[in-house]
């Protein structure tokens, strides 16, 4: 499929999701998506006749941002509103 057609389909998909198509790179056949609060991923669209197979990737996390996020998560008390499925509560 032509890359522009893929980008058009991605834009249409975004209209029904919280994600935005924030960048496209035709030479790499890559599309980058983003949604608040800081969720992002990219898709590589091979051009080798492999059908509907795509590579989904996650960008490298910024170490400082990850450490700040980890510290915030560790400080929070877990909510026990409902039992967790698949986790033993001994």
UniProtKB/TrEMBL annotation:
Primary residence: cytoplasm
Subcellular localization, as worded in the UniProt entry: Cytoplasm
Sequence segments annotated as region (Disordered): 65-90
Record keywords, A-Z: Cytoplasm, Developmental protein
Composition skew (Acidic residues), residue ranges: 65-79
Listed GO CC annotations: cytoplasm
Transmembrane segments: none
Cross-referenced Pfam families: DUF4581
Biological process according to GO: positive regulation of megakaryocyte differentiation; regulation of signaling
The family this protein is said to belong to: Belongs to the MTURN family.
UniProt cross-references to PANTHER family, sorted A to Z: MATURIN
Record's protein name: Maturin
UniProt source species: Macaca fascicularis
UniProt gene name: MTURN
